[in-house]
UniProtKB/TrEMBL annotation:
Enzyme class: oxidoreductase
Record-marked site positions (Interacts with tRNA): 99, 185, 188, 301, 304
Enzyme Commission code(s) on record: 1.3.1.91
Cofactor field: FMN
Keyword Glycoprotein in annotation: no
InterPro entries linked to this entry: Aldolase_TIM (IPR013785), DUS-like_FMN-bd (IPR035587), DUS_fam (IPR001269), DusA (IPR004653), tRNA_hU_synthase_CS (IPR018517)
HAMAP family from the UniProt entry: DusA_subfam
Catalysed reaction, written as an equation: 5,6-dihydrouridine(20) in tRNA + NADP(+) = uridine(20) in tRNA + NADPH + H(+); 5,6-dihydrouridine(20a) in tRNA + NAD(+) = uridine(20a) in tRNA + NADH + H(+); 5,6-dihydrouridine(20) in tRNA + NAD(+) = uridine(20) in tRNA + NADH + H(+); 5,6-dihydrouridine(20a) in tRNA + NADP(+) = uridine(20a) in tRNA + NADPH + H(+)
Organism annotation: Pseudovibrio exalbescens
Domain (DUS-like FMN-binding) ranges: 17-320
Catalytic machinery residues: 102
NCBIfam families per UniProt: PRK11815.1 (NF008774), yjbN (TIGR00742)
Name this polypeptide is given: tRNA-dihydrouridine(20/20a) synthase
Similarity field: Belongs to the dus family. Belongs to the Dus family. DusA subfamily.
Amino acid sequence: MTDTTTLYDINTPVFSVAPMLDWTDRHCRSYHRILSRRTLLYTEMITTGALIHGDRARHLNFNAGEHPVACQLGGSDPDALADAARMVEDWGYDEVNLNVGCPSDRVQNGRFGACLMLEPQLVGECIAAMKNAVSIPVTTKCRIGVDEQDPEEALDALVSAVLKAGTDAIWVHARKAWLQGLSPKENRDVPPLDYELVYRLKQRHPKVFIGINGGVATLSETQEHLRHVNGVMMGRAAYHSPMQLAGVDRLIFGDPKDDIDAREAVEAFIPYIESELAEGTKLSQITRHMLGTYQGVPGARHFRRIMTTEAVKPGAGIEVVHQALAAVHGSVSGGFGADEPEAAGAPTL
């Protein structure tokens, strides 16, 4: 476990990969960890019901090398969230985060996610219950409002409630969520971003860790945000162009080391893939998270084609990865720059 006493020191920046449903599973996180030692990684959102009544190990298992790693919970019952937070801490996570931002219909029907922006007092009660249950950091991830709410008022109300409850950090997705009229996909792009609102929030709370999320596409944008807030959370851009993460330790944290290149990253991940294959994991469950490795590089299409068409075949093994590497390295050697554009995809929670 990471030393969590310094995880949210406002004098040290935090860069994280956002929790994304169906994407940031343990295989994805293990690959991202090869690319960056310092990036904070998140699980997909896990509901309290899934932990209390479901297959706990399937949801919570992670690899020791993933630290620092946080678990995001979805729920609105303080007692259930306290129980789930204890499980998260017992499993060895470095942080537990409450989702107050996901806009999907399923989440709304369960009375959690973005709809909780309408109930700041309840969110405060949830954070307080989680804080009383664990010693690891308890953090909040929210939107700037929903539907017809005034963003400044909605965000202030939510922040006031969770600060009173003792939250250790606040991550703000700088868009509204429209619970009526927009799909979850549209909620990732249609509501306009309002970074300045989050900057003003930080100015009003200089001693509180405030992190920003939403539409962050490059590490140069990350550096600009860090002039105003304490942390930056990158979502789809980190997933679709994962080699950006190779520059995080040097550019964001000043670590004096050369960035790992694409070939080195894939080769370093091979022992993990082999160990998972030996445990019965299907190759495609792992390699689907690697498809963007050569994004923007000649030969990327060959790499993706082999990894997508061959990895799904029955009995596919590590030879597929070697074949994909051989295909691309006829035309390229090494990685690429950090300023690749963000692609569309899975929801950032």
